[in-house]
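Q: Got a minute? One more chain.
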Amino acid sequence: MSVIYLLIAISIFVAIGFFIAFVFAVKSGQYDDDYTPSVRMLFDDELIKSKKSKSTTKS
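A: Always. Here it is, folded:
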C-alpha cells in the first residue's frame, strides 16, 4: 500500500514539473505565431472581396 502513495507523490511532482516547463515555454514565446501574420497579408484582398460580394448579393 505504501508503494501506491510513493507513486502518487512521484506522479504529482512529475506533473508539476511539466506544468512549470509549459508555463516557462509560454512566457518565453515558444508558442508565438510569427508565420501566420506575414502570410495573412497576402490573402487580405480575397477576404475583403468575399465580404463585399456577400454584402452586395444580400441587397
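A: DSSP finds two helices and no strands in the chain.
Q: Perfect, thanks.
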